[in-house]
Design goal:
It is globular and about 35 Å long. The chain has three helices and five strands. Helix content is 29%, strand content 30%. β1 (26-33) and β2 (37-41) form a beta hairpin. The protein has one domain: OB fold (Dihydrolipoamide Acetyltransferase, E2P) (Beta Barrel). This is YobA family protein.
Length: 115
């Protein structure tokens, strides 16, 4: 009986610890960080980023709104936005729904630098 209970506990703990190890929900390039969020462009290649990297994030957003280009901007609420810098390529796991606004908004469960 004790062995069966121990096996059950191990299975449950393994399941819980592996639940956050799946594929990222999205990836992107950091455009801006504040004390509350990280703004990421999900539709921007590293080469395209090199062309616009000196533009302020507000100008990039304005170009998106005006329809000149689409970069898939999203503001991600995150516990430690200061860990990231403009230009970082990141993988993102979302916690909950993505808010329909522009830029989109969501809470990030996890953000990690791409390897």
């Amino acid at each position: 009986m004790k062995k069966a209970m121990l096996a059950l506990i191990i299975i449950i703990l393994s399941s819980v610890s592996l639940s956050g190890c799946g594929d990222a929900d999205m990836e992107g390039i950091v455009l801006k960080t504040t004390e509350n969020y990280v703004q990421v462009a999900t539709e921007l290649s590293p080469d395209e980023y090199e062309e616009i990297k000196d533009k302020p994030a507000g100008q990039i957003q304005d170009e998106d709104v005006l329809g000149d280009t689409y970069r898939g901007l999203i503001n991600l609420t995150y516990d430690n936005p200061e860990k990231f810098s403009k230009g970082d390529e990141v993988d993102i796991w979302i916690d909950g729904d993505i808010r329909e606004s522009y830029p989109s908004g969501a809470t990030a469960k996890k953000i990690s630098l791409k390897k």
